[in-house]
C-alpha cells in the first residue's frame, strides 16, 4: 500500500484537532519519526540484512519499492538522490580500493536508536 494512498483525515477529538492515518490517531503537534533503520534490517525486504552484500543492490527493484525510504518518499523525495548515491559510490570505491583503515582507541559505536559514536570514532587511515 502506497503511503500516498493511505486514508488520511483531520478529525476533532475531545476538542483537539488530530490527524488520523489508517486508524492511528496522531495528536496535533506530535513529531513522527520514521525508523528507517528498522525497515532496512527487515529480512522480509532484504534477506540476511546483516550480511555485507553490496551485490544485493544489483536487483534494482530493491531501491524502487515503497519501503526504500533512505531518501524519503512521495512529494518530499530527495531531489539529490541520484547525486548522493553517485557521490557515496565514488567515495566508497576509492576508499576501499586505495586505502586501508583501522579503529584506534576504545570508543564504542552505539547502534540504537541510530548509529553514532558519542565520543567520536578515531580511525587510522593510510594509502595502499
Ligand atoms: C546520502 C545522501 C542523502 C540522503 C541520505 C538524503 C536524504 C534525504 C531525505 C530523507 C529527504 C526527505 C526529508 C523529508 O521527508 O522531509 C531529503 C530531502 C531533500 N534532499 Fe536529500 N539526501 C541526500 C543527498 C542530497 C543531495 C546531494 C542533495 C542536493 C544536492 C539533497 C537535497 C535535498 C533537498 C533539497 C531535499 C528537500 C526536498 C523537499 O522537501 O521537497 N539531498 N533528502
TrEMBL record:
Its cofactor is heme. GO terms for biological process: brassinosteroid biosynthetic process; brassinosteroid homeostasis; sterol metabolic process. Pfam families: p450. InterPro entries: Cyt_P450, Cyt_P450_CS, Cyt_P450_E_grp-I, Cyt_P450_sf. This is Uncharacterized protein. It comes from the Eukaryota. The keyword Transport does not apply. One of its GO terms (molecular function) is monooxygenase activity. Heme binds at residue 78. Keywords: Heme, Iron, Metal-binding, Monooxygenase, Oxidoreductase. PROSITE patterns: CYTOCHROME_P450. Belongs to the cytochrome P450 family.
Amino acid at each position: 500500500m502506497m503511503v500516498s494512498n493511505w486514508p488520511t483525515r483531520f478529525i476533532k477529538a475531545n476538542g483537539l484537532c488530530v490527524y488520523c492515518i489508517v486508524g492511528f490517531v496522531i495528536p496535533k503537534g506530535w513529531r513522527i519519526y520514521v525508523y528507517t533503520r528498522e525497515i532496512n534490517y527487515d529480512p522480509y525486504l532484504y534477506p540476511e540484512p546483516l550480511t555485507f552484500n553490496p551485490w544485493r543492490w544489483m536487483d534494482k527493484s530493491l531501491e524502487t519499492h515503497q519501503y526504500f525510504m533512505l531518501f524519503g518518499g512521495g512529494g518530499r523525495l530527495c531531489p539529490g538522490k541520484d547525486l548522493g548515491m553517485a557521490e557515496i559510490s565514488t567515495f566508497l570505491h576509492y576508499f576501499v580500493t586505495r586505502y586501508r583503515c583501522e579503529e584506534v582507541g576504545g570508543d564504542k559505536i552505539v547502534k540504537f536508536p541510530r548509529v553514532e559514536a558519542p565520543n567520536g570514532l578515531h580511525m587510522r587511515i593510510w594509502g595502499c
